[in-house]
Amino acid sequence: MDQPAADLHIHTTASDGTLTVDALPAAAEQAGIEVVAVTDHDLIHPELSSPVVEIDGVTVVRGIELKVETDNQRLDLLGYGVRRTDALTAELDRLQRDRVDRAERIIDCVESRLDVTLDIEPAPGIGRPHIARAIEQSDAPYDYQGAFDHLIRDGGPCYVPRSITPLDRGIELLRDACPVVALAHPLRYDDPAAALDHAADLDAVERYYPYEATAHGSPDGAVGQSAVEAAIDRHDLLATGGSDAHDETLGRAGPPGDAVAAFRTRLRKAVR
């Protein structure tokens, strides 16, 4: 695969990543990329003042990753060049309140179950990775992955479900706020074909993604990259991509130069 020219899917300390905005330019330089999209979960990064900003020579696209509920599975949508509309702000505020309430319930369960105290204070942006790190740093007999596997995984003894935005509502909110809306990592879902059926309602699909480098492993089954490429061609979509980095290593995956140029053209026309 060609060297990525951008990383359009990263997370920061505003949600469940470890990268700060201050450290972003150095991480981008290390990866040899000049365009980065900050796509934190269910929030717009508070330190990014506009949909597209330049920070120490790096083009930073203000984005968002929004989880949505369909009839048979949950999907992740990526919005790029996001603006703060009243409707989106209200929904994100609701989701963040739910995140804090959910985290408090998970923490209470873990502390009661293991008779430990976790050094963590729920705040907007909190997710299960924060809690897993706190479990690892406590007296609990689990490391980060063990905390997920034995306690807080989906269906685990301390798992608490989240309140999720319905698909149609999520698309409506992001379309009003973002010039580009993409389906994230289509081959990660239980039913990739059903996920790709929604591509016609979007602007892009995350074609470039490091499946083999994530905990989710390599995609398998009948639906593969050929189906992703077919959906992009059929609906004339942008091919986006990124590393989904939750650490400080960018550029594990991302679109090549021609795809980045098409993405920047769409973004530039919409945000100027």
- Uncertain stretches of 5 or more adjacent residues: none
Taken together, the total number of domains comes to: 2
Helix content: 25-40%
Give the overall silhouette: globular
Question: How does CATH name the architecture of the largest domain?
Answer: Alpha-Beta Barrel
> Which class best fits the helix and strand makeup?
alpha/beta
> What's the tally of helices?
8
Total beta-strand segments: 9
Which fold name fills CATH's third level, the topology of the largest domain? TIM Barrel
Q: What fraction strand?
A: 15-25%
Topology order in helix (H) and strand (E) letters: EHEEEEHHHEHEHEHEH
N-to-C CA distance: 33 Å
CATH superfamily of the largest domain: Metal-dependent hydrolases
Structure characterization notes:
- There is one protein chain.
- By secondary structure, the protein is an alpha/beta fold.
- It has two domains: 6-83 and 178-271, Alpha-Beta Barrel (TIM Barrel); 91-152, no CATH class.
- The protein is built from eight helices and nine strands.
- Strands 1, 2, 3, 4, 5, 6, 7, 8 and 9 form a nine-stranded mixed beta sheet that branches.
- The longest helix has 29 residues, at 86-114.
- It is globular, with a radius of gyration of 18 Å.
- It starts with 5 loop residues before the first strand and ends with a helix.
